[in-house]
Every structure is written in structure tokens, then in C-alpha cells.
């Protein structure tokens, strides 16, 4: 089974404000783009992934991620993360109606293709399934079979909302790279310890990351 992934990305200038203590306004957009580039590159290298669609209105991010092989879908709703994901899922299913779809965070710079493949294999056993983030509060991946709507409920305590919606929680070990999203300096330190992709490594090389 091969999946289509939908990855949402805010305009770079407005993304990741919680990283302001680690990366200032002049640095943060480039760091956010590096996260997304490493996430998309790893996803496209996963044998379980047929294609990747990035939902964004950021022109620079769109060009850079398209150059990696992603399909760019304009964020037509402009009504937040979940509306963007639902719109992206509808767009990719118009082209690949038989494909299962998974929403994946854009801030997984340590993502490893083999771990993503393991998560997607587990998700294929359920109509809808999700993976909690490293903090076990949010969600980094939400998957839906071809016959199911995605029904995303990301942001904040989304683990509990996705579970309440009937999605199965994937209880997997050794998939830390798929769980480790980056919202804070502490998250970035954890991702760097796992081993990030080359673009994030370069963008973060001169940052002074505070201890948490």
C-alpha cells in the first residue's frame, strides 16, 4: 500500500513564533523552511509514500518544496490548519481517489523514512489512525483509508480529540523521528539529538539553543 501525504505549511514569516527565544525574526523563516524541506525529502524517500502534497500560500516555500518533488496545493480556505488539511485531502483524492491519505506535520526535521514506513504500515490496519507527538499531547500524523474522510482536529491537545473522533492511536516504539515535532527550543534540541536532515543542520548550526 502506498500513501499520499498532505503536509500543511503556514507562511514562513508567521510560523513557529514559539521559537522566538531560539531564532529571531530574521532567522526563523529560514529555519522553518529547512524543517519543511527535510520533512518533505524524508517523506518522499519513504517506500510507503506515493506522493506528497504541501498546502501552502508561501511562494518561496512552494518553489523550494516543489523542487524536491512535492505537489503544491494553494491554501484556498485560508481558515487555519484543519481547513487547509481537509482542502488538501480533497485535492489529492481528486487525482488519486484510491489512495489512502495521511496528514503529516511539516516540522519533523529528524524524520527517518524507515520509521515513517513503520507508522504507515500500522495505520493501514485501521480506517483512521493517528500518532501522538513526543509530548503525548498533540498529533504528528493522522491517517485515513481510501474509504474514510480524514477529519483532522490538529492544534493543541489534538491527541485527545483524534482519539475521541474514533481514530485508533498507534502505540509504537522506536518511531521517535515521526513523533518529534519542533515548536520550542527544547524540541529543537531533542530533534538535533535524534539527528536532523542536512538543511536543518545547516540552518541551526549557529543558533544558541537555550537549555530548558
Structural features, described:
- This protein has 212 residues and is α/β, with parallel strands linked by helices.
- It has one domain: Spore Coat Polysaccharide Biosynthesis Protein SpsA, Chain A (Alpha-Beta Complex), CATH 3.90.550.10.
- It is 38% helix and 16% strand.
- It contains eight helices and seven strands; from the N terminus they run E-H-E-H-E-H-E-H-E-E-H-E-H-H-H.
- The chain has a seven-stranded mixed β-sheet, sandwiched between helices.
- Helix 2 links the parallel strand 2 and strand 3.
- Helix 1 runs parallel beside helix 2 and helix 1 runs antiparallel to helix 8.
When the domains are counted, the total is 1
As a percent range, the share of strand residues is: 15-25%
How many beta-strand segments?
A: 7
Q: What percent of the residues sit in helical stretches (DSSP H or I)?
A: 25-40%
Class of secondary structure makeup = alpha/beta
Order of H and E elements: EHEHEHEHEEHEHHH
- The CATH architecture can be named as Alpha-Beta Complex
Shape: globular
* Radius of gyration, in angstroms, nearest whole number: 16 Å
> Residue-averaged pLDDT, rounded?
95
Do you know the CATH topology?
Spore Coat Polysaccharide Biosynthesis Protein SpsA, Chain A
The first-to-last residue Cα distance is 41 Å
Output the CATH homologous superfamily: Spore Coat Polysaccharide Biosynthesis Protein SpsA, Chain A
Amino acid at each position: 500500500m502506498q500513501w499520499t501525504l498532505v503536509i500543511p505549511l503556514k507562511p514562513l514569516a508567521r510560523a513557529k513564533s514559539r521559537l522566538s527565544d531560539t531564532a529571531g525574526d530574521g532567522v526563523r523563516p529560514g529555519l522553518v523552511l529547512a524543517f519543511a524541506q527535510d520533512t518533505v525529502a524524508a517523506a518522499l524517500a519513504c517506500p510507503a509514500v506515493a506522493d506528497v502534497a504541501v498546502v501552502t500560500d508561501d511562494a518561496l516555500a512552494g518553489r523550494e518544496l516543489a523542487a524536491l518533488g512535492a505537489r503544491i496545493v494553494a491554501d484556498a480556505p485560508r481558515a487555519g490548519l484543519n481547513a487547509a488539511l481537509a482542502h488538501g485531502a480533497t485535492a489529492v483524492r481528486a487525482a488519486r481517489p484510491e489512495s489512502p491519505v495521511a496528514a503529516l506535520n511539516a516540522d519533523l526535521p529528524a524524520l527517518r523514512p524507515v520509521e515513517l514506513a513503520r507508522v504507515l504500515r500500522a495505520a493501514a490496519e485501521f480506517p483512521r489512525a493517528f500518532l501522538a507527538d513526543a509530548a503525548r499531547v498533540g498529533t504528528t500524523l493522522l491517517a485515513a483509508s481510501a474509504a474514510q474522510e480524514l477529519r483532522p482536529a490538529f492544534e493543541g491537545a489534538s491527541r485527545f480529540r483524534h482519539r475521541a473522533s474514533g481514530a485508533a492511536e498507534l502505540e509504537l516504539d522506536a518511531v521517535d523521528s515521526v513523533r518529534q515535532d519542533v515548536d520550542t527550543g527544547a524540541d529543537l534540541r531533542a530533534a538535533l539529538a535524534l539527528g536532523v536532515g542536512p538543511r536543518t543542520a545547516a540552518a541551526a548550526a549557529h543558533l544558541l539553543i537555550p537549555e530548558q
